[in-house]
Amino acid sequence: MTLALFFAQLLNGFQLGVLLFLLSAGLTLVLGIMRFINLAHGSLFMVGAYFAVTTYEATQSFVLAGLVAIAGALLLGAALERTLIAKLYSRDHLYQVLATFGLILVFNELARIIWGQTPIFLNVPDVLSGTVNLFGFEYPAYRFAIITVGLLVGVALYIVIHRTRIGMLIRAGASDAEMVAALGVNIRLINTAVFAAAAALAGVAGVMAAPILSVQPGMGEPILILTLVVIVTGGIGSIRGAFYGALIVGVIDTIGRSFLPAILREVFERSVAQAAGPAVSSMLIYLLMAVVLALRPSGLFPVKHG
Amino acid sequence: MARYTAGTVAAAALILLLALAPVIASLAEQPFYVTLLSRMMIFALAAVGLNLILGYGGMVSFGHALYIGVGAYAVGILNFYGIDNGYAHIAAALVCGTVIATLVGAVCLRASGIGFIMITLAFAQMFYFLAISFKQLGGDDGYGLTSRSDFKLFDLSDNTVLYYVIFFVLLLVLLAFSRLVEAPFGVALRGCKENERRMRAMGFATWRIKLTAYVLSALVCVLAGVLLANLTRFVSPSYMNWTTSGDILLMIVLGGLGTLIGPVFGAVAWLALEEILSSFDLGLPGNADAFIRDHWAIVLGALVIAVALYLKDGLYGYLGGGRKAAS
Amino acid sequence: MTALTVRGLTKFFGGIRATDGLDLDVDSGDIHAIIGPNGAGKTTLINQLSGELNPTAGVIRLDDVDVTHVPIHRRVHLGIARSYQITSVFLGFTALENVMLAAQGQRGKTFSFWQPVARDAPLVERARSLLARVGLDDAVHTPVSAMAHGARRQLELAMTLALQPKVMLLDEPMAGMSRHESESMVTLLKSLKGVCSIVLVEHDMDAVFALADRITVVVYGRSIATGTPKSIRNDPSVRAAYLGDEEEPA
Q1: What's the gap between Cα B6 and its chain centre?
Q2: How far apart, in whole angstroms, are the C-alpha atoms of residue A7 and residue A137?
Q3: What pLDDT does A94 receive?
Q4: What is the CA angle C1-C18-C89, rounded to 5?
Q5: What is the mean pLDDT of residues A77-104?
Q6: Any alpha helices (H) in chain B, and if so which ranges?
Q7: What ipTM does this complex have?
Q8: C221 dihedral zone (left: phi>0; alpha: psi -120 to 50; beta)
C-alpha cells in the first residue's frame, strides 16, 4: 500500500462523495421542505445518464449531451411534480413510498423498452481523457473534473440558499413549511421549483457518472440507497449534512473497499479475511449510519425546527 | 360480532379455496397451481407479518424482505453444512431472526417517520450485500438446496404436503394475531399508532412495545423465508432485495391495511396479476400480447402508482370487510 | 404536607427563557390554580412537571422524591399524570376502550398476548366506574369520533383519573366548553378534592376562583404572586400584570 495509491483512493472517495452530494442535496431538500420521500430520485439520475449518452451519440458533443440531460431531467422532474407528486404531499409517507416505488418500476421498464437491457457506454470526452498532476502524482483528469464541478455546484448552492431571497424562503420552508405558506408565498411554485431543481441536480450527477458507470436499467437504485444513507447520517433536510455526509460516506466506502481486505489479511488468518473482507467493506457505511443514529438520532448536522 | 358482510364471505371463500386448491388441482391435472398457490401463501404470510407493525403499529418498514432472507439463508447455510433437520432449521432461523430484528429494530426505532422508512431500506440492502458476499453459497447466483427440510413426521418433498404445511402456518399466524390485536399488547400497539405521545403520558413504555412488535413481525417473515427456501429448493440474495420489500408493502395496501386478512387478499391478487401478465395471451391486436408479456413490469408499476393514489381501504376494505384498526 | 415542590425551575429554548427560576408548592389535597397572560409559559411548566420536557435547571420533587429528569412514562407510575389542552383521546376506540387503555397503562402487564382486553373484568369495571364518575355512563360504547367536544373533555379527565395520580396536571380542562359544560366540569373537579392534588392551568376566571384553594400567577416564566384567591384578587402586582388580559370563555 503506497502513499500514491492511498491518495488516489482518497480522491476517488471524494469523487464518489461529490456525486452523492449532488443527489442527496436535492433529495434532502425535497424531504425537508415538502416532507416527501422520493424513491424515484435514482431514476432521475438514470434518465440524466441515458439522455446524455443518446445525445452524444447523435451530436458527438459532450456539452450538448450535458445540457440536454440536465434540461431533460429538470423538465421531467417538474412534470412529475405537477401531475403526481403534489397529490401526495398530504398523504401518509407509506403512499409516497409506494407511488415512487411504482415510478421506479415504470422508469426501469421504459428504459428497457427504449434502450434495451444491455448497458450502453459513454466515453470520457477527449479533452479530459488524460491525467492531471496533483502534488507530484498523476490522477485521471475526468475524475478530477467531477470533483471540481461538484464542489462548484456546492458553492453555487450555498450562495443561492444563504445569499438570495429564494434561498431564504427555502430555508424557512425547511424549518417551518406551514408558516411560509401562511405568509402568502406561492408555495406551489416553490415546491415545483425545488423538486425540479433536485431533478436537475440528479441529472448533472447522471451526466457526470455516465462515462464511469455502465448505463443500464436499474442503475439508479444502488446510488439511491447510498443517498438515503447519506441523508440519514447527515440529517434530514440539511444541505450541510448532505455535503459532509456525502464526503464521509464516499471516502469511507471507497477506502474501506480498497484497504479493508488488505488490513484484515494482516490481522486475521487468510481464509477468514478472504471471506470477511468483501462482506465487511460493503457493510461499512451502514455500520457507520447505525453508529451515528445510535448516538445522534437526528443526524450529524440536523436542521433546527421552528 | 357476526356481521356477515361481503368481506366476511369473501374471506371465508378465500380460505376455503386455499384449503381445497390441491384437491382441485390434482383433479384438473394442473399441479403447477399447487406451487403457484404455495408461493402466494408464503407472501401472504410475510404480508400478514409486516402488517402487524404497518397497519396496527403505524411503522412503515421498507426492509422486511430482509427477514425472509434470514429464514431462507438459515435453511441454506445449514443445508450447505449437511444439516437437514427441519426443526434445526426453524430453531436457527428464529434465533437468528430474533437477534437481528432486535438489533436492527433498536437502531431503526431511533428515527421516526421518514427516517425509519429510509433506514429499514438501508439495512435490508446491507444484508443483501452481505448475502452476496457468501461466495460458498453462490453469491449473487444463489444456492440450490440438496433437499427440503426434513421434519421426520411428514415428507416435505411432496408438494402437496408442503402446501398444507404452509396453509397451516398461515392459519396459525392469523389465529395468533387475531388474539394478539385484542390483547393488552395489541391494544397498546394500536394506541401507539394513533397517538404515541398520549400513550407515554399514560405510562406505556412505547419504545419497548414497538420494538417487540417489530421483532414479532420479523419472525413471521422469517418463517415465510424458511418455507420459501423449501418451496423453491433455492436460496438467493434476491429474496431480500428491496423490490421484494416494496412488493410486500404493496400487497398489504392493495388488500387492506390494518385488517388481518386483507394482506392475504393482496398477496393472492398481486401474484395472480403477475402470473396473468407474464403469460398474457388474450389475442389482442398487433404485438400487444407480446408487449405485455415482456414488459409486464410497466403495467404493474402503473398499477402500484394507482393503488397508492386512489385505493384507501384496499380490496378487502372495499368489500366492506373487517373491523379496522385505529386509522 | 406538600405533594409537589418546585424550586428554581428554568427552561431555555435557544435564547428564550420560557421558564425563569420558578418556585411552586402544592399542598396535599389542594386544587392549586396557575394563571397568567398568554405566553407566560404555563404549558411549558406543565410539560416539565409531567416529564415531557427536560428542564435546563431546577428541581421538581414529588412527595420528597426527586423526579426532575424522570421520563414521562415512568413519572406516571410515580404519581404525576396530566391531561391535554387540545383533546388527546383515541378516535379509533370507544369511550370505554379509551379509559381501559389508560387503566392498562397504569396497571402495566401490557406484554400479554392472548387474552382479549375486553374479557378482563376488573379492568372493564374500573373503566366503567370512572366513566360514571365523570358523567359519561351513557356513552360507554360510543366511538369517540361520534362524541361532542364537551364529552371528549370529560373523557380526557376520566383517562387522567384512571392513572391514579397523586398529583393531576390539568391543562385548560375547560377549553372550548359552553357555560353549561364548564359548570358541570367545575362541579366534577370539586368532587375530586381529597382524591388527589390538582394543578390547574385555566383562563376561565370564574372557574378558577370557584375551585382554587391557592393560586399562583405566572408572568414571563416566573411566579409573581402566590396566595389564596382573595389575596390574589387584591394583589396590585397581579392587577398590573393582568390589565386588560382577562379572558371570558366562548
Answers
A1: 25
A2: 9
A3: 93
A4: 75
A5: 93
A6: 6-27, 32-54, 65-80, 86-108, 114-132, 159-180, 184-201, 206-232, 242-255, 262-278, 288-294, 296-310, 314-318
A7: 0.89
A8: left
Closest CB to B62: pick one of A97, A110, A112: A97
| Alpha carbons B260 and B252: distance in angstroms, whole number | 10
Residue among B50, B61, B62, B118 with most chain A CBs within 10 A, to mutate: B118
Helix (H, G, I), strand (E, B) or coil at B29: coil
Please judge whether A229 and B122 are an interchain contact, meaning their C-beta atoms are less than 8 angstroms apart: yes
A98 and B297 within 8 Å at the Cβ level: the answer is no
CB-defined contacts A:B, below 8 A: 131
Distance of alpha carbon B321 from alpha carbon C44, whole angstroms: 44
Helix-strand-coil percent breakdown of chain C, rounded to 5?
A: 40, 25, 35
At C77, is the secondary structure helix, strand, or coil?
helix
Is A129 within 8 Å of A141 (Cβ atoms)?
yes
C238/C226 Cα distance (integer angstroms):
10
Ranges of H-type helices in chain A: 3-34, 41-59, 62-83, 93-115, 141-163, 165-175, 177-182, 187-209, 220-234, 239-267, 270-295
A131-134 vs C222-227, strand pairing mode = unpaired
Extents of the domains making up chain C: 1-86+165-250, 87-162
Non-local CB neighbours of C206 within 8 Å, separated by 6+ positions: C182
Task: Report CB contact under 8 Å: C111, B182.
Answer: no
Chain B: touching chains (3 or more CB pairs < 8 Å): A, C
Model pLDDT for residues C209-234, shown as the tens digit of each residue: 999 999 999 988 889 899 999 998 88
Q: Enumerate residues 6+ apart whose C-beta is below 8 A from C186.
A: C174, C207, C210, C211
pTM of the model as a whole: 0.91
**Cα–chain center distance at A43:** 11
Tell me how far CA of residue B127 lies from CA of B114, B228, B239, C26, C158, in angstroms.
21, 18, 11, 55, 48
pLDDT of residue B291: 82
| Separation between Cα atoms, residue B62 and residue A232, nearest integer Å | 15
CATH top-level class of C1-86+165-250: alpha beta
Q: Which residue from B273, B238, B210 is spatially nearest to B68, judged by alpha carbons?
A: B238
Residue B88: its pLDDT value, please? 93
Q: Is A44:A203 a contact under the CB 8 Å cutoff?
A: yes
Q: B184 contacts in C (CB within 8 Å)?
A: 104, 109-112, 115, 117, 120
Q: Say which residues have a Cβ less than 8 Å from residue A176's Cβ, sequence separation at least 6.
A: A305, A306
- What is the C-alpha separation between A268 and A261, in angstroms, rounded? 10
Q: Which residues contact C102 (CB under 8 A, 6 or more apart)?
A: B202, C158, C159, C160, C162, C163
Q: Categorize the per-residue pLDDT at A305 as very low, low, confident or very high, splitting at 50, 70 and 90.
A: low
Nearest to C219 by CA among C10, C45, C39: C39
Given the C-alpha cell 441454506, which residue does it identify? B76
The whole-angstrom distance between residue B88's C-alpha and the CA centroid of its chain comes to 22
- Residues B79-86: contacts with CB under 8 Å, at least 24 apart: B79/B145, B79/B146, B79/B147, B80/B136, B80/B137, B80/B143, B84/B146, B84/B147, B84/B149, B84/B150, B85/B149, B85/B150, B85/B152, B86/B149, B86/B150, B86/B151, B86/B152, B86/B156
CA atoms within 13 A on the CB side of B221: 32
CA–CA separation, B93 vs C52, rounded Å?
40
Please say if the pLDDT value at position B67 is more than 70.
yes
- Beta-bridge partner residues of C16: C13
Cβ contact A101–B304 (<8 Å): yes
Instruction: Tell me the C-alpha distance between C183 and C189, whole Å.
Output: 10
**Main-chain phi, psi angles of A117, to 5 degrees:** -80, -30
Give C32→chain B minimum CA distance, Å.
21
Which cell numbers in the block locate residue A302?
440536523
A166 vs C78: which has the higher pLDDT = C78
